[in-house]
């Protein structure tokens, strides 16, 4: 049997998660906003029909949303992080090989399924996902991951296909390859789209038929690989095991400007605690952290400043207390009064598996890693049981005290991760 991949993704995913738990939203225009309720980052088809664009600032569309009955939600990351796990559990019942590509997209290998049965299987998968999780999806089938992604694009744009497009079908392949513009190809951004236009490409079929030497010259080996994938020759296999994280960052814009050192320290300590949590989840550590904070370019009538500081540790660590201490040192080293800071963060790169990392020499600040690991294990266990942020370093403060923290004024309940938020059906 021929090789076949599928790409399945959730439609208007964040909005669909909100609709799962509120049946009143079924045909209502819905949008979800970014951090601090800034911009529209997810829209239902009904909201798109009203002219609401992706990334449009909420303050510009507030009146439109009110007059047209648009339901507006703050981002509910706990909900949006849990629902994909449920969806992928369903996918694993249809294929043993799966790559979780993003929060709402997964590639599946259907090479072992007969060509005549693939569309039927994908329709069954869509129906099962909708029935078991409430999330609507579209599925694209292709001989390569690039073609599967392209097929998924067609499935979303053409309702007559019923949510499934099969580009392993020669008739469908020839039909759509001649009708899709090059800029809709996976990974072709504006610069490469301009290069393909200069090479005379008006459709995906034109890109497929290019001389690979010309493409390699214009777009390096990445472009050559793209052409081969469009021809049905797989150059990208499934990544069933996620690659080891190379870097990690925790950054946030403040809900209000920060003008004093104590508040900045609290914010950075909170970010450092979250960084430690992320590193421990992957068994990774770091021997350096970069702390940054800056003002907003929108405060044009105020002085501007952007600073960062790299703090080196004696050995790799993921201990929250160690990271907080290092990050606070970075803040104090670069702090200057008289500015209204809008954002801060902590960033680290060159992560290493902590178990195999080099230890510090005795007498040069060697860290008690075993003792710290036991303490961090207890901290993580408490936060898993009682909710993230239940136990934090004192320097990070508690949520009610954090006037700088990100705004989520219109966030829906955390239906799937908080027992007290589980929907309750009342008997009539």
Could you outline the blueprint of secondary structure elements for this entry?
Blueprint: E1 5-10, H1 13-20, E2 30-33, E3 40-43, H2 45-49, H3 58-68, E4 71-73, H4 77-91, E5 98-102, E6 105-109, H5 118-133, E7 137-142, H6 145-157, E8 164-166, H7 170-177, H8 190-198, H9 204-208, H10 212-230, E9 247-258, H11 261-281, E10 284-295, E11 306-317, H12 320-334, E12 341-349, E13 352-353, H13 369-386
CATH architecture of the largest domain: 2-Layer Sandwich
Number of helices: 13
Largest sheet descriptor = 5 strands, mixed
Strand order of the largest sheet: 5-6-1-7-8
SS-derived structural category: alpha+beta
Query: How do the SSEs run, as a string of H and E?
Result: EHEEHHEHEEHEHEHHHHEHEEHEEH
Portion of residues in helices? 25-40%
Number of domains: 3
What's the CATH superfamily of the largest domain, by name?
Answer: Reverse transcriptase/Diguanylate cyclase domain
Within the CATH hierarchy, at the fold level, what is the topology of the largest domain?
A: Alpha-Beta Plaits
Number of strands: 13
Distance between the termini: 55 Å
How much is the average pLDDT?
Answer: 91
Unreliable parts: none
Rg, Cα atoms, Å: 25 Å
């Amino acid at each position: 049997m021929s090789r076949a991949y599928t790409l399945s993704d959730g439609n208007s995913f964040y909005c669909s998660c909100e609709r799962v738990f509120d049946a009143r939203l079924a045909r209502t225009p819905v949008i979800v906003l970014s951090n601090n309720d800034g911009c529209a980052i997810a829209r239902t088809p009904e909201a798109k029909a009203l002219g609401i664009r992706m990334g449009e600032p909420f303050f510009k569309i507030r009146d439109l949303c009110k007059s047209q009955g648009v339901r507006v939600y703050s981002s509910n990351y706990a909900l949006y992080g849990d629902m994909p796990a449920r969806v992928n559990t369903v996918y694993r019942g249809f294929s043993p090989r799966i790559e979780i590509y993003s929060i709402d997209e997964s590639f599946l290998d259907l090479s072992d399924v007969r060509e005549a049965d693939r569309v039927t299987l994908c329709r069954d998968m869509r129906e099962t996902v909708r029935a078991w999780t409430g999330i609507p999806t579209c599925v694209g089938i292709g001989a390569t991951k690039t073609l599967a992604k392209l097929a998924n694009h067609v499935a979303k744009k053409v309702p007559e296909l019923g949510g499934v497009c099969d580009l392993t079908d020669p008739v469908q392949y020839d039909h759509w390859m001649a009708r899709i513009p090059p800029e809709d190809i996976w990974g072709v951004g504006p610069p490469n789209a301009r290069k393909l236009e200069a090479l005379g490409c008006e459709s995906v079929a034109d890109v497929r038929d290019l001389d690979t030497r010309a493409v390699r010259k214009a777009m390096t080996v990445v472009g050559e690989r793209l052409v081969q994938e469009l021809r049905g020759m797989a150059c990208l296999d499934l990544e069933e095991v996620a690659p080891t994280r190379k870097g990690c960052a925790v950054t946030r814009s403040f809900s209000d400007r920060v003008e004093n050192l104590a508040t900045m320290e609290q914010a950075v300590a909170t970010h450092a605690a979250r960084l430690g949590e992320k590193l421990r989840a992957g068994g990774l550590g770091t021997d350096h952290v970069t702390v940054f904070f800056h003002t907003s370019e929108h405060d044009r009538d105020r002085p501007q400043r952007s600073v960062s500081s790299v703090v080196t540790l004696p050995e790799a660590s993921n201990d929250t207390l160690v990271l907080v201490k290092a990050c606070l040192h970075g803040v104090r080293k670069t702090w200057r009064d008289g500015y209204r800071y809008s954002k801060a963060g902590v960033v680290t790169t060159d992560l290493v598996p902590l178990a195999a990392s080099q230890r510090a020499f005795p007498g040069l600040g060697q860290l008690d890693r075993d003792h710290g690991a036991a303490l961090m294990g207890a901290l993580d266990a408490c936060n898993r049981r009682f909710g993230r942020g239940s136990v934090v370093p004192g320097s990070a403060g508690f949520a009610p005290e954090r006037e700088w923290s990100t705004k989520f004024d219109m966030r829906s309940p955390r239906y799937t991760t908080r027992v007290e938020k589980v929907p309750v059906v009342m008997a009539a």
